[in-house]
Amino acid sequence: MSFSAEEIYFDEMYTLVEGGPDGLHISAGNHVYPFSYILPSRTLPSRFYTVYGNVQYKIRAVFIRSWKFNYEDELLFSIVSPVDLNCLPEVRSPSTKSAEEMVSSCLTSSGSIILTVWLPFTGFSVGQNINVGTRIQNMSNVSVERVVYEIIQTIEFMAQQPLVKILSIKKSIAMEYTNCIDAHAEKSWTTSLTVSEAETPNLSACKIISSSYRLKVKAILPFPHSNIKISQPITFGTVPLTGINTNICDPCAQLNSSVAAPVSEGTPPYSFQANAVSDTGSSQPQPQSTAPPSYEEATH
């Protein structure tokens, strides 16, 4: 069974050249007929394409001939819908999360491993480094094999015909990892990830396709121990946050105490400097990309 849904954001028709009672006679050679079109002032979703659904914008030209087949051609073009992160106050706040795993060996507890992850803010723009602060407190006899960082994109397609159905697709759009942390060791560090504009379309104006993003951090433990996992929602935009401190500060070092609680989240009880702390496949022709300014261009 096939499921479908459709939204039309604008559909206009214009006559560039029109003949008289006797029709239109065009001499041999090249003829250029310039035209322009002003996009609707309301927010439009960015161009987006997958095998499951897409948002496309196209110009179709039709040369109508009497008693003959018409000539047709079309051109796809891109729309990059802007998102000003400064209009989203919730993404300016820092975030910290921690998780603890009790490690046992031969039915005897050997200690705990605490994973703490923090971000100076949760809103990021195109090309901006996503700096993730991490701290491992390994008080067990087991080494942490590695720590894996992933940014997961979730796309939901909402069909309306013949009945309502939602298809959810998850995709990893960025990944980094670190080396092992030995038993009875403690370590803090910063890891950076970057995501391109092509991976973060603004679909907020689309009612049948939606997107969301999460940073997932996982401390890998040897079998048979369970891995330690932390997940944090993040937001992407085209205009970066201003007046923020992008430096990563270790909350454990600032508090001079250990974070030893089950998975917790929210605004950490520490302060930063400055104002705020900081399955796809396409067989169709693709339009030329009109990318927003890079992070460096937007901040200068």
Walk me through this protein's architecture.
The chain is mainly β and 300 residues long. It has a domain of 171 residues: Immunoglobulin-like, CATH 2.60.40. The chain is built from 2 helices and 13 strands, in the order E-E-E-E-E-E-E-E-E-E-E-E-E-H-H. It has a 5-stranded mixed β-sheet, with no helix packed on it. A 4-stranded antiparallel β-sheet has the order 5-6-8-11, with no helix packed on it. Strand 5 and strand 6 form a beta hairpin. About 10% of the residues have low confidence.
Overall SS class? mainly beta
Biggest sheet features = 5 strands, mixed
What is the CATH third-level topology name of the domain at 85-255? Immunoglobulin-like
Shape annotation: elongated
| Element-by-element helix/strand order | EEEEEEEEEEEEEHH
Tell me the strand percentage band: 35-45%
The CATH architecture name of the domain at 85-255 reads Sandwich
* CATH secondary-structure class of the domain at 85-255: Mainly Beta
Q: What's the arrangement of strands in the largest beta sheet?
A: 7-13-12-9-10
Number of strands: 13
Please bin the fraction of helical residues: under 10%
Please tell me the overall pLDDT. 84
Radius of gyration from the alpha-carbon trace, in angstroms = 26 Å
Poorly predicted segments: 257-285
- Helices, by number, come to 2
* Distance between the first and last residues' Cα: 52 Å
Biased composition (Low complexity): 282-294
Pfam family, one: Arrestin_C
Region (Disordered): 270-300
Family: Belongs to the arrestin family.
